[in-house]
Amino acid sequence: MSDLLFQSAQQHIPGGVNSPVRAFKSVGGSPLFIDRTEGPYVFDSEGRRYVDYVGSWGPLILGHTHPQVVEAISKGAQRFLSVGAPTQLETQIAALICELMPQIERVRLVSSGTEATMTALRLARGYTGREKILKFEGCYHGHSDSLLVKAGSGLLTLGIPTSAGIPKALAELTLVSPYNDIAALEHIFATHGDDLAGVILEPIAGNMNCIPAEPDFLRQLQALCHQHGTVLIVDEVITGFRVAFQGAKAIYPELQADLTCLGKIIGGGLPVGAVGGRKDIMDYLAPQGPVYQAGTLSGNPVCLSAGYQTLSLLKAHPERYDQLAAHTKSLCDGLTKLSREAGVPFTTQHVGSLFGLFFTDQTRLRYLSDVNACQIDQFNVFFHTMLNHGVNLAPSAYECGFVSWAHTDETLAETFTAAKQAFAAVAAFTEANAANPKEALSPEEALIPA
Fold this sequence. Notes:
450 residues, alpha/beta, Aspartate Aminotransferase, domain 1, Aspartate Aminotransferase, domain 2, 2 domains, seven-stranded mixed sheet, 15 helices, 39% helix, 14% strand
């Protein structure tokens, strides 16, 4: 059924999808077409159930279609769908974000993470009067022109180092440094520091799988930004309210952001983004300041109804973060044990409820080059065998996974049952190709059917 639906979609939608990584281009095959969701599960167009670790790419920390969030959306929609005028709900969620994230003094609501990072860059340039931006290799901050230079996520999955359609002159204003590389960072600041308007980074890179920043790297970045008057932009679109109650800054107390970008969880599954930070910088935004930003649907009340309910539940149950972290550790430990039993080199990394799976004998991955050296074909075998046995992972070796409140010991048990088959498939695939490399199996030929 998914094959037919995908063929139909390609007649009307470029590539058959509305976001590239959904297309299964890296792993092969046709994408699942989802019919409905519930708790830790998604159901495809044929009604088949899957334990889901994608979670709409991060926002569904409570699980799919959480009843209280659905109720909040329903009540909100009965009042208004969109008004294009101020509502009290905008103030309420902005105040809640400022309360929960102490480094944020003012918030501008937008409709996506891409809008948030795009606004943050313009704000940094307007505030400093400078033009150059520094980003880090493998970090993905949305698809705005300034940030699609050596980006992660879908671009890595498709093997595209940048994107067509970006003016060369604009790309030249974006400098790129390797993630976690202090020497390279110091060199760039020594050469360009006084011309840098802002630096943007993911504190835990979730778009080259799951690569946490090194504390020493963050400390030096912090010091250099302060020394050169450069705005430090922390992209917490994925990590905000996900890895800890106050986001990555709760894990890295040395990280003092001038601007923070949020998304995902603050929309509770609906499209919301935000940029927030120091009052003196945020006040540069129009209508108060000279930096223009606007959006007809910014602060959409139905989306904010979902986001406010989600944040309220997280605030009421901060103890659930420890439970989420413990569940994620159990997941990763269980998968590691099964990989050892199957003789498959495999490593996991996890922070809070965010995790990454790597087919490598390295025990610690720090750089994009480490991720690039992993066995992508082995991941593809693992991915499809897991899918065949009812577990849905992100369809790319460069994407992280997510655990939600709805995942239980039962869903972990289902996952481990599938993973035992998946690691066996990887082991057989590797052994067959080592024995006869001239007639190597493709990942599709190595799958173990359900």
